[in-house]
Design brief:
Elements (H helix, E strand, L loop, with lengths): L2 E2 H14 L4 H11 L4 H17 L7 H15 L3 H15 L6 E2 L1 H19 L9 H13 L4 H19 L22 H21 L1
Helix pairs in contact: 1-3, 1-9, 2-3, 2-9, 3-4, 4-5, 5-6, 6-7, 7-8, 7-9, 8-9
């Protein structure tokens, strides 16, 4: 399944519109490990992105959408998570210059660009108990999965859900959560959980587009 830039904006608007409903869940998870601001970051960032991409002209290209999303998310709330995700989207925009259609290969390239920027700027890796623990494995699943968009998203969600559960057994290595040391064990990573919730919302939005 390929989608136009306009369809991508519709999917993102729908998916991000569902994210504020998870703000309290993410706040509670983050409060157990850090300063508890992830719920605010995700809600403010999601709302800012919806507003920013909604203001784009109808003929905006894929990179324009990603650029607007990255700028909006990174500046909506002053947090490390916002800076990392926003910066990742800005990096991804550079890989989509001039494109007006998006396919599975492009989606993989976008995800990989986001992950690479997070690794570089956050000086983190899979296993550090961050969003990468769900993001990177789900991208590996996307790279190897077959079928339509629903099937690919289902596979990514299954992988991300499994990895989010596994993060509860890890000790946090980055950010404020690392201060908790052994006390961070037993709690799922909030950033990885936020990514899972986004994938789940994307699944609903893509299904609605196809119906």
């Amino acid at each position: 399944m390929s989608v136009t830039s306009k369809q991508l904006r519709d999917i993102l608007t729908s998916a991000l519109g569902a994210m504020p409903a998870h703000a309290e869940e993410l706040r509670e998870l983050d409060a157990a490990l850090g300063d508890g601001d992830l719920g605010i970051t995700v809600r403010a960032g999601s709302e800012a992105v919806v507003k920013a991409i909604g203001a784009l002209p109808d003929d905006a290209a894929i990179n324009d959408v990603l650029l607007a999303a990255g700028k909006a998310f990174s500046t909506a709330n002053p947090s490390t998570f916002a800076a990392l995700i926003g910066g990742g989207l800005l990096a991804a925009a550079k890989t989509m210059q001039g494109k007006t259609m998006l396919d599975a290969g492009d989606a993989l390239a976008i995800g990989q660009a986001v992950a690479t920027r997070i690794i570089e700027r956050g000086k983190s890796k899979v296993g550090d108990k961050t969003v990468l623990d769900a993001l990177v494995p789900s991208l590996d699943t996307l790279a190897s999965s077959q079928g339509d968009a629903d099937a690919r998203l289902d596979a990514m969600i299954a992988t991300a859900r499994e990895r989010v559960t596994e993060t509860a057994q890890l000790q946090s290595q980055k950010g404020r959560a690392a201060w908790q040391q052994e006390r961070s064990i037993g709690h799922a990573d909030p950033g990885a959980t936020a990514y899972l919730r986004f994938l789940e919302a994307m699944r609903v939005a893509v299904s609605a587009l196809q119906s």
